[in-house]
Structures are given as structure tokens and as C-alpha cells.
Amino acid sequence: RTTMKSLRFISAEAFVSNAEFARKSLGAVAHDLFPLLFKASYLLEQGEVIHDLVENWPLFDFNMGKLLGPTLDYQEDLSHRTCSVCMESCLTGLRDYVLNQSSPYMKKLKVVDLTGIKDIEVQFCKCKKTMGRWARTRLLSKLCSELLVYLQQTQCNPGTFEISINVLIDLFVTEWNYELVMQALLKNCSCPLKICCVAFRSDNLTLQKFFYIIKLTDPSLLHKLEIVHNVHLEMEHLEMLFSSIHFPLLMSLTLPARTFNVQRFTATDEQMLTTIGEKMGEMTQLTELSMSFSILTGRIQKLLSPLKTPLKMLDVSNCSLNHADMAYLANSFHANHLEALDLSGHDIPELYPSTFSKLLSHCSSVLRSLTLEDCNIQDTHVNMLILGLSPCQKLQEFKFIGNPLSSQALKHLFTFLCKLPMLKNVEFPVPRDCYPIGITYPIDDANLCRFDHQKYERVAEELNLILLQANREDVKASTPLFGSYDAAVQETNNELGAYLIKSFKETLEKFTASFNKMS
């Protein structure tokens, strides 16, 4: 698919394609053409031109999402291109904007917004090297610290210290970049480039470091907080976090696995849970909540009922919900507003089929994404599922990996899915009849790949043919066996792997020491 370019855009491409000429001629370019030239340079990966455009940026703001998004001159959205060459050129250009000795009254730039950049699986840039959120966090922190050191050691134009640019960014902090980010945030007041954290993700970080750095980010500005995987946050730490720090603008909260475990609850824990619910109720902007792999049996109402604003996204996958929890969800004021819902890991057909149908009917007018992985949905339940999904005419994404469905049932379901007009993405399971007879669900990792691959390919072709015959080439159907692509996990998998090996080694050493004592 080719996107039309205006004559202006074609001219801009011609101008920036000769980097040496473009860089020499920037001084004669009208200010309102800088955004056009920036997008053209980004498309052609002209790193040196990008650097010089940013270094001499003549406007009040630099919003990367808008600059790279669809424009009248070129509709193609480039905001998902996290090309390493282009990203590094932008950030070093920003540093050099501060250092550029042209008279300060010409420097108008006040806000740089890097939050509109989207990390996706397939990159189209020629260099094939991406700079993900973690690496952007690291580079910006490094450049801010180096800039400050340089300014303190060099005789600069006094006006340089009057420059103050807010750099809006989604930070991603782990053990491996913690020190750099922490140093940059500590000196934020003195640096002309002010890091303004809009979204914060932490992984593989001790609680002590997490608590320290979250306070440095200025939590009053945070819109999104993700605490994931190897941050061992439990309920008492969460209560401490919410009691000591206010998040007035927080819209989205993700908690790590095992934050809650009601099986171990005491009276004190019940009170703690009530406090956490009340504190979340004070977050009047909160509309997205993810707390998967916690044990929350019978406590959903206690957590969610204090919320003043209805949730638009809820992930309670593998949370051991009971009938009371599902009944609360179906009847709560959240139900009519849920745009994204993940109930994976619950035996829906067995435990609460009618309550689930009620929940679906309440959110059907707005639901865009539904995830029902490992929910024990079998062939006999497909008609019930179709009935529940029929009113969900705005559904764009449906994921149901890990359910014991036959090829025949999948074909029946796909024939129905073709009728959902907004549907774009379907993640379906390997058919049960592709696995050896007697396989038990949920399938463990050891057996996950032990299926008849040729038969699966044939079935996948037939399912795609159903979409094709219904003129639904716009629907992408796939079977990601080990879960959907996660850009953040992908970018830091070396660090996470090293962490797991270290944990395993420590566990082994403890076991050996205990065994030797016994001997």
C-alpha cells in the first residue's frame, strides 16, 4: 500500500536527500517548513539532517508524535518507527540546541514531547536497529547529565543557563539503567533539559530503589505507572506507596504478579486492602487497572467499589475470581464503560456462564478488546460465546489462546467473527485435534509445541480462507504460543535472563548449603 505524497513533501524529500546541501541551507529555510523537513528526513533516515533541524528548531514546541503522525502532506504514520539512527540524532540535536551559541533570544523551544512514539514488533527502517523505551530513557538521562557537567566546566554564554525546556518522556527503569536515570533526575532542576516523566515503568528493581526513584520523578505529573515482573511489591508496600505519595493525574496502573494473596489474609490485611481501595478512589483520573496473577477471590468489590471514575480497562487474568466477584463486575458501574477486558485463566463456562454473558451484554456497546486465554472454552460452549459476542459490534481484538477447541469449532467461530465490522486482530489456539489424544489443559510449557505442525498450518490456511471469502483481509489471525509481543520485555530480555540465572544460582546455593548442614 503506497501513501500519496503532496508536491511539498516530494520537494522536502529532494531537499533533505542531499544531506550536505540541506545542512548548509537550513539558515535560509522558512520556520514553518521545519516540521515538513523533519518528517521527510525521518522517512529517509537522514540522521545528520535530523540532528541539525532539532539543533536549530525555531518553534515553541517539538511534539514527536504529531510531527511523525499523519499530516496533510503525507498521511503515513511514522510514529511507530523507533529507528536508532533517527532517535539518537533527535536527542543529540536537542542537547546541541542548548549548546548552540546563536543568541538566546532566538531560542523559543519550551516543550519537547517524546511520548507519542510507539514501540512495535516489525520495524521498517533501513538500519533495522531500534531504540526502544528503555534505551531512550538511558540516552536522554546520559545526555542530560553530560550536558550539565559540560556547562559547569565550560565558559558558556550566560543566556544558556536561562534555557528551560520540559522534555516529556515515558521512562523505563531497570537495575541496568537505574544509576544513570537517578543521577539525571537528582540534577533535574539545574539542567536546561528538564525530564518530565509522564509514564513510568519499572522492572528488575529492588523495592528500595523503586521507592527512591519514583519520588524523584515528580509523581504529581504521572499519568501511567507500571510496576512489573521483578519488582517484589506486596500489599503492604502498595499501601505504603499510596499513603506516602499522591498520584493526582494517574490514569493507568499496572501491578506485578502476586501483589495480593487473600489466602494468607489476616484482619490487618483486610484493613490494608480497604485502605488501598480508598486510596485508589482518590485517584479521580484512574480508568485503567491491571493486577494479573494475584489471588483476589471474593475481594474485587472491596478494591473497585471506592473508585469514583468508571474503569475503561481491567485486567484480572489469573486472579482466582469467584461468582461473587463476577457478579459484582457484571452489575457495577464499570461494566458499561469497559473498552478492554482480560479474564484469562478463569473457567468461565463452568463457574459463571450466565454472569459472564451479563457482563458482556453491559459492556458490548464500548468493548474493543477481549482476552479469554486458558478459560476452558470447549466446542460445546462456542454457541454461547457467539451469542455473548454478537452485540459487541465495536470489538477490534479478540484473544483466546489456550482453549481446548477443535478445528471444526474454530471454523464455526471464525465464520461468526467475520461479521464483527471493527475486528482487526484475532489470536486463536492450536486446535485440540492437532495435539496427541489425552492432552490436558491448560497445556504446560513442555508440551506446548508438541503438536502436528503440518495439520495446524492446514487449519490456519482454512481459517484465513474463511476471512478471505468474507472480504476480511483486514483481520490478522495468529497463534502466538508464548503470548503477544511485548516491546518492553523484548528490549530488556538480556537483563531479565541474567536476573533469572542469578536467582536460580542463589536458590541452588541456599539449597546446597542447607543440604550440607543436614549431612
TrEMBL record:
Record key words, sorted? Leucine-rich repeat, Repeat
Gene Ontology, cellular component aspect: cytoplasm
Which family is this sequence assigned to? Belongs to the PRAME family. LRRC14 subfamily.
Q: What is this protein called?
A: Leucine-rich repeat-containing protein 14B
User: Which species does this protein come from?
Assistant: Pardalotus punctatus (spotted pardalote)
The gene designation is Lrrc14b
